[in-house]
Amino acid sequence: MKVSTTPRGSLIVFEGCDRSGKTTQCAKLVESLQAQGEEVKLMKFPDRTTTIGTLINNYLQMSQELDDRVVHLLFSANRWEAIESMKKTLKAGTTLIVDRYAFSGIAYSAAKGLDLEWCRSPDIGLIKPDKVIYLSVNEQIMSERANYGNERYEKIDFQKRVHNIFLQLQEPYWQNVSADGSIDVIHKEINTIVSETIRDSKVKPLLKLWT
Ligand code: TMP
């Protein structure tokens, strides 16, 4: 059997409520890792560019109604359709920075009232992240952003429920980062966490989520 000697890339996932600054921080992180000479690629779920992603996009933008369970499974399928290419990328030594993953899948669907363990099951076996960075926004800031957008979940009470479920999902490889400070201060904190994670996971095997 041929054993790969290429140090693998890390799977870094960002999670948080809507408007917690994930997208900004992901972009800044990719830029600074590239400047440090790391091979890095940015990904985002839902990936709205695929056929499944188009259905999800229509649902989020309220142009289509779908049963809660159906949309939950579509979000999961949207991750599974990316998994082989993610595995290849990581094994080739490229780090993936991923804006939302299976934890969003559970938190948003369970916040609608679906059973949490039912929500977890379709994502069991995805690649386990090396680090989940949870950007937490305090309630004051969340309230100031109340009912801020046009997409389906952008409502304050719903977001508070989502946040509470995210807290239940935390595991030892999660790191909470307060999203209340300045963009640059948050970025610095994240950069330190991620640089350490990339260094430490190079020779570790890729594991499966929740198995
Ligand atoms: P975005 O704003 O990061 O593009 O995410 C779109 C919305 O979809 C956001 O409100 C979170 C929600 N979502 C789910 O409900 N389930 C999922 O599995 C994912 C990845 C996102």
From TrEMBL:
User: GO terms for biological process?
Assistant: dTDP biosynthetic process; dTTP biosynthetic process; dUDP biosynthetic process
Pfam families assigned: Thymidylate_kin
Enzyme Commission number: 2.7.4.9
List the molecular function annotations (GO) for this entry.
Answer: ATP binding; dTMP kinase activity; nucleoside diphosphate kinase activity
Q: Which GO terms describe its cellular component?
A: cytosol; mitochondrion; nucleus
On the tree of life, the source organism's domain of life is Eukaryota
Where does the record locate the signal sequence feature? none
Return the HAMAP family for the record.
Thymidylate_kinase
Q: What name goes with this protein?
A: Thymidylate kinase
- Give the gene symbol: LOC106077767
